[in-house]
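Batch 3, record 17
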Amino acid sequence: MHLVVIGGVAAGMSAASRARRLSRDLKITVLERSSVVSYGACGLPFWIGGTVQDPDSLIAHPPEFFERERDIRVRTNTAVREIAPARHRVLLESGEELAYDRLVIATGARAATPPIPGADLPHCFQFRTWEDAHLLEAFLLERQPRAAAVVGAGFVGLEMAEALLARGLRVSLFDQSNHFLGWRDEWLSAQIRDQLQRAGVALHLGEPVREIREGAVDAVPADVVVLAPGIRPNVELTAAAGIALGRSGAIAVNEFLETNISGIYAAGDCAETHHLLLNAPAWIPLGTTANKMGRVAGANAAGRRERFPGVLGTSILRVCGAAVAVTGLSEPAAREAGFRPVSAAIESRTRALYFGGEAVKVKLIADRASGKLLGGALVGKEGVEGRINVLATALTAGLRVEEFQFADLCYAPPYATVWDPLLIAAQQLLKEIG
Amino acid sequence: MHLVVIGGVAAGMSAASRARRLSRDLKITVLERSSVVSYGACGLPFWIGGTVQDPDSLIAHPPEFFERERDIRVRTNTAVREIAPARHRVLLESGEELAYDRLVIATGARAATPPIPGADLPHCFQFRTWEDAHLLEAFLLERQPRAAAVVGAGFVGLEMAEALLARGLRVSLFDQSNHFLGWRDEWLSAQIRDQLQRAGVALHLGEPVREIREGAVDAVPADVVVLAPGIRPNVELTAAAGIALGRSGAIAVNEFLETNISGIYAAGDCAETHHLLLNAPAWIPLGTTANKMGRVAGANAAGRRERFPGVLGTSILRVCGAAVAVTGLSEPAAREAGFRPVSAAIESRTRALYFGGEAVKVKLIADRASGKLLGGALVGKEGVEGRINVLATALTAGLRVEEFQFADLCYAPPYATVWDPLLIAAQQLLKEIG
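Prediction for the assembled complex:
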C-alpha cells in the first residue's frame, strides 16, 4: 500500500506523519516542488522584520528527519506534471511515473498576480514561499532601499508593512478596499487604519494602484515593492485530472476530506473546507486549518474514517504592535447568509491598571432571531488571542448570547478583571437584541 | 418601595447599582459594617507585596459617589443586629429599625479561626478584610520581621506567601493537606509545590500545625504569622431570621437568587450557587461570582426575573510568578458525582520560541461514558487565563472532547502555536477514552 502526498509544507507533512503514526506498513512518499519541507511559512515576515534571526530555525525538520525517524520518503525539488486517477499514477516533471494507492493533495496556494502595469519590475517581490522571502531579503541587504510600498492589505501585506517599518524603511500601504481581513466592517477597519497610521504607515486605501514604475507606486516613492494581492489555490493538476473543484475554485472535499475520486484526499490551502456557521463549503486558507486538515486526511488515507468538522475562520495577526483577531461571520457575511445580525462594540481593560492592564476593544455579533452568537472581533495589545478563542469555542458550541453572558471566566488581579470584556460586550449585545 | 442591601463590597454594591439602573423610583440603602465599601478585596495581597502602591486605589468609589451619582444611600460603620422578615424590618446595632420591601443579603464570608494554640498571639494576623490588611501592613512596617509563616495554602495563603517573599521575608507555608485549591490532584499539587519551592518557600505540608509561639510555628522560626485557614459564610443574621441554609452552610437560593423567604435575595460569598456540572447547589465563594450574583439579585430585587445559571468554579491565581488555573471538576470530585473520569496531562508551548513562548502544562478531564469534558487545570507563565476560559466556555456548552479537538482556535507566530496546547491535550485525552 503506497500513500503519495503532493506538497510538503503544513498539510502535506501533517498528513504523512499522521498516516505513519497510524500505520507501520504503509509506504509513504512526499513530493515537494521546492527545496524545503515542513517550514513555518507564517514565520517568514518575522525574519524580514528581524524577530527571527535565522530562517533555518523556521524549518521544523529537514527531509532526512522524516526519512530517518518516520520512514517517510521525502523527495524535494520534485514537481508533479500530471495525476492520472484511472491508472493510479502520478507523473513527475522528470517523466518518472509513481504508482499510488492513496493520494493526498496538499499543493497549497500561490500569490495571485496583480494586473498592475510594472508589477514585473525587478524591485517588485511576491511574498509567499521560502524562495520569495530569500529573494526579498537579498534585495533589502544589497540595495538598502529607504522607501517601501506594500500592495495589498491582507495578512501578508499587513505583516510585511510592520516588518519593513521594523527594518527602518518608510512604508506606504495600498489596497483598493478600505477594509481588512474580508470583514467589510467599518468599526474593525477603523481600528486597523488607526493602528497603522499611529505606527507611521502611509495609507493609500480605497482605490486601485494604477502603475508601478522604478522608484514609485503611482505618485508615491518606493524603492522596493511587496506585492500581496491575495492568494489562489494551486488546483491546475487536480482540475486536469477530473478532480472536482468547489464554487470557490478550490478542491471540493467531503467531511472525510476525500475528493470526488475515491482514495484521493485534499487538505490545506488548495482545498475547501466546511464553514460551521454557514453550514456550507468555504475556502479559508490558514496555517492552522491546513495542519488540522492534513492530520485528518492522513488518518483517512491510512484507513481511518475521521471527520473534519470544519472551521469558523478564526484568525489573528499583529498589526504594528496590536493584536487584531476575528472569528465567525462579519455582519455583511451574516446578512448574506440569511441571518439578522445585531452587534455591540465596547472598550474595556484586560487587567487592573496596577498590573499593567491594557485597553481592549471587542465587537460581538449575534442573530436577532435565534439569539445565537455569530462572530466577533478584538483589537488590543494583550489578551486578544485568549478571548478570540473563547468566542470561537462559544461559536463551535452554538451558544446563545444569553447562555454566554454569565460564563464563569477566571478572575484574579494579575490576569483579568472581574467582568471580562467579552461578558461586558455580551451584556451590551443582549440590550441590542432587546 | 425600599430596597435594603446588607453588605457593601462586591455582591452588595453590584446589586444596589444594578437595581438603580433598572429602576429610578426605588429607594436604595446599603448597610456596611466596616468603614469602606466597593473595594477590590482581591487586590489587598498585592498591596502587601508592593505591586499596589496605595491601597486607596483599590477603592472603586467612595460612599459619596454612590449617593451623588446613583442616588444610593450608603451607611458605613452600620452593623445589622437582626432581620425580622415577618415585619419587613432590619434592626441595626444602634437600635434603629429600617423598613424594607426587598432585601439583598450580601454579608460575605469571614476568615475561619484555626483551632491552633497561640493563634491569638499579637504577631498572628488574619487576612480577609480591609482592616486585616492594614493591621498586617502596620506590623510589617513597625516590626520589620525577617521570617514569616503562612498557615493555610488556599488562595489567600498562596498569594500572601508570594507577597511576603516579595517584601524580602523568608517564608514558610503550612497546610495540613498536601493538595491545593480543593482539587486533590497530585499532578496539579506537584506543579504548585515545585513552583513554591523554586521561589524559596519552605513547605510544611501534610500535617496540621500543633502550636504557634512567639517567634515560631512549631519548630520553624516566624516573627509574623498570617492565618489563612479558609473562610466561612456570614450567615448568623439570616439563620436567626429563619432564612434557610443549604448543606454547605451558606444561604440557599433558587435560580433567581431568592431565599426561601419571598422578597429576600442573597448573593456573593454568603450564598450558595448552582454548580453547572454537578447540577446541584455548591458554595464556591469567588469575587467574580459575587459580582455576577449581585447583578442578578439586584435586578430581581428591582422587579425583573433574571436567572443566574451557575458556576464551574473557574479560578486562577499567581503562585510565585506562575499562573495556576482550574475549572470544572477534579477527578475525585467527578468520581464522587458519579462520573467515570479519565484524564490526560501534557506539556507544550504557548508561542514560538523566537517570540518568547513559554512552557504551559495542561490537564484535561472528561467522562468516559459520555465523552463530555468535565474539567481542567493549567500551569504556566503566560497564556493560562485565556486557555482556562476556553475550557470554561466548552464546559458551559457541555462540549464533548471529540467536538472540541478541532476547535478553530487562532494562530499567528506572535500569539499562538499551530496546535494549541488545549487541542494537543484533547487529542491525548481522546486516546485515553479509546
